[in-house]
Amino acid sequence: MKVFKDRLKKVMVDQNINQVELSRICGVSRSTVSKWMSGDSEPTKARRNEIAEAFDLPENYFEEIVIPKKRIETLTPKEVAYLMGMGVSTIEKGLIQGTFPWGYAIRTSENTHRYFINAKKFFVTEMISV
Hints:
It is elongated, with a radius of gyration of 21 Å. It folds into 2 domains: about 55 residues, 434 Repressor (Amino-terminal Domain) (Orthogonal Bundle), CATH 1.10.260; about 50 residues, no CATH class. By secondary structure, the protein is mostly helical. It is built from 7 helices and 2 strands, in the order H-H-H-H-H-H-E-E-H. Helix 2 packs across helix 3 and helix 5 packs across helix 6.
């Protein structure tokens, strides 16, 4: 129940709504919302999905694991190297060392690296437009 309660509170803060407004949006009594907020009860899975949809969140937002509505767009080290005018090995080393705020490297069981570069964060951080 803690996952639902905590995420509901976050949504309310992010959306700047109070319990009265939430009860109106969800079509439930204020006492029901109060029980949700305290963790004394939790709506059904179907109702949780409806609440998530009402706030334009992923359907499973109130579940333990959340799958985003759409995939995160990524870039390869080669693409980033080209855009930044650097060598691919420089970008890869920076990702391994944790230098860049928009990506990281993971060491695989084969002792190589896999790279993840968040395209949106990259373009915002580096102020590059395409």
